[in-house]
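Write out this protein's structure.
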Amino acid sequence: MITLISNSYSQEEVASDSSDFSVDIDLGVSSRNVWRGLDYGESPSIWGDFYGSFKNFSVGAMGTTTLNGSKAQYGTWLELYVSYEFKNLTFVIDDYFFFNAADSANNYFDYSQENTQHLFEARVEHENDFLKAMVGYVVYSNAADNTNGVYLEATYKASKKLSFNVGYLTASQWLSFYDAGGITTLGINGHRELNVLKQKLALTASLIFNPNYENASPWVGNNPVYFVLKTEF
């Protein structure tokens, strides 16, 4: 997730005698949850990532919610995922579920293609010291979903204090809430790490432009520009 997630400080709890297995928790707070160029919930948000890793495999659950308690504009969602790392490549399957404002409209356990609100995305990521790139495609969703856009994202890490990122959709996509393709994100990010009470805090300030905002769904915030502050610990 572009705005809320990057290199996080993890608290590791070893759950077995094997050094190959670990359980980790990552946390973050952001002034806005801007993901793929759109504002989810139009409120300060908090997220948590709870996952287990064994050798090159990871399985986890990530929850995101607004700090004002509202589920409007899909500011609360749950993401289950499984990933496998091979050298500089990571292969990921995500199961996204965006909660409606009305609880009665959230049938989480219905995976049938006729009724499901789940969206499964297959992603391939590559990362080195200077570049992080990702390609994602929705492989399972509701039968009414006739979109076929591929999402591409790249981050150039100019230094420890500065990075640039761009996101692009080849066509419309339900998962990303766009009716047409285009550049969804042009971001300039400043990074700083602080030590507070012996705890590392990763701070990021981001100026984000969305040239494709006019093609975004009215169900979420779709401004042309955002300024976002976040911290991860």
